Amino acid sequence: MPTVARDDLIIDYRELGERDAPAILLIHGWPDDASTWDAVAPVLAEAGFRVIVPTLRGFGATRFADAAAPRTGNSAMLAIDAIALMDALGIARFMVAGHDWGSNTAEALAVGWPERIVRLAMLSTPPRLGGMPTPPFEQAQRQWYHWFMATARGAQAVRDDRKGFAHIHWVNWSPPGWFDEATFARVARSFDNPDWVDVTLHSYRARWDEAEPDPRSQWLEDKVKATRTLSLPAMYIQGDADGINPPSASRDVPAKFTGPFAKVHLAGVGHFPQRENPDAVARHLLNLFAGDPAALTDSIDRSLPMKKVAPFAAGIAAIGLVAAAAVGVAQAQGRDSRLTQVAQFDHQATGVAVTADGRRFVNFPRWTDDAPISVAEVMKDGSLRPYPDAKWNSWRNARANELPVGDYFVCVQSIVPDGHGNLWVLDPGAPGNEKILEGAPKLVRIDLAGNRVTKVIAVPGDVALQGTYLNDIRFSPDGKTGYITDSGTRGAIIVVDLESGKSFRALDGHASTQIDKTVKVAIDGKPLVRPDGRQPAFASDGIAISKDGKTLYYQALTGKTLYAIDTAKLRPGVSEADRAAAVTTVAQTHVADGLWMSQAGVLYLTSPTDYAIKRLNGSTVETVLTDRRLRWPDTFSEGRDGTMYVTASHIQDTNWFTPGAPASIKTELFSFPPVK
């Protein structure tokens, strides 16, 4: 089989399927080897996937190239190995399924590289998100071998009889008769690797803090412990006769996933489901990898496990399954290949800003939680840096009466560069999208070169009325005027002289800036309502400006009409009657949150109710892409090369509309190529 050399490791792997097909990484566990996927991998390849099956460090033909390299086996290090393999193969984004050790390796991949992991399947071993608590006595008894290996005598016993040690787990972890001795003997050759014992001992000792993780992976180990949930489409496959991790040990697994998720119980199956019932595993993996994530649902699979099957036989027999799955792969589970996840966040992000030099920023409003950062720069490794500094981001709801609201970000809704070297932060000053804190509504200008605040423009109480919610802003080409949508109780366009700091309300109460009471917001055909029956009611929200600065476009979120006005009518001294007469209807649209006029002159609109990005073509609206990862596409920004960025703010997943949802929810930043 082919190999890939990375740093101190030479990774042996197997590859099936077409090279340009969507990729799936299959990761084996312990005590096992890559052949565990022999009856599953061909089914996935026949269904239209490129399947990569590596051999883990310490197993089989995978070898350390450096005699002095530490023989570590913690799951974060295995994930780093996997990323190196996929990098060497030129695979940027992929789906992953892992069994046992591979389950936690796959989990670490999703935590460490969320922009690369499309879907996740974990088999037989629960996630370690949030850290590993000491197990209850009953589970600790099942895991006796963990503690056995932590002792000097236990470690020596493993060195003296590695195959006997592995064999007892094959016997104990699954129903009697599930394997034949010839199969075990073939797999056990993988344990002849000279580093198998050291890697094994380190893996189990490190997870209970009896050994330090590989220093190169400490950052990822810490991130897994700090991460409570994952939001990507995921599946957990559990044998109901598993002798080491029975269903009782995975009771809390669903709470670890906030996105589309399914927990699958396989009747009569033990700890090695891909060996014991490969037909069922292949079928469920294809449901995850080639189906609609919205259709994922918990299930109990009572199909009979196959005992003592020859490799490949069970998988190749699934002819009907392959045919059905091949159709779904082309559509990549309701995904559009043009949409790329750039970053994932632990809190609700709404705004995004991309500067001329490629820096990326996001903001987190205090809607349902007390976000620890309001404005952040997204670094190349996906980490967040409070911007412009920690002090401006140190506001907390609990200290509302202690901190001067004009000197801190209180509830940031939008961040937009002005094209003149500045990033402007729009702070409605209304935590929870409720009452305005007096003096808190403001615009903050940050010099991008110096990373420092250079101006604060307070929006006074006769402009930011109680009930106002400053939503988004656009700038005149000369950088002297800002136009803000008020999406609160009484919609308006707020015009700000960025030099003098003076502001006023325009089209205040005009029909074009108000909610449309005939519009009912629905997602997947179901009305989006709060527990008390209220629907989303947001007035003028999305806003865009033409490249010459002469036309301002805007729309109420709870609306279906795109309006425009000549910006000359938004100057001081123009009567409201003249402004009202200047408003024009551009198009009949849909429920839209964000608007953006691109450098190429394309007006983009988000479409939260159908997970879509759309564009204006004359007086009609066309779909650019639809992808169910866009759970409430919110705000746009544009890179220097024309690449479009959009946040998914998951408004429908907040506890406003999903009772029992956590205060903090996972959100994402995506990118897609511009329309040609």
TrEMBL record:
Subcellular location, principal: secreted
Gene Ontology CC terms: extracellular region
InterPro entries, per database record: 6-blade_b-propeller_TolB-like (IPR011042), AB_hydrolase_1 (IPR000073), AB_hydrolase_fold (IPR029058), Epox_hydrolase-like (IPR000639), MRJP/yellow-related (IPR017996)
One MF annotation (Gene Ontology) recorded for this entry: hydrolase activity
Keywords: Hydrolase, Plasmid, Secreted
Localization terms from the record: Secreted
The organism's place on the tree of life at top rank: Bacteria
Family matches, as PANTHER family: PROTEIN YELLOW-LIKE PROTEIN, PROTEIN YELLOW-RELATED
Protein name, UniProt field: Alpha/beta hydrolase
Organism: Sphingomonas taxi
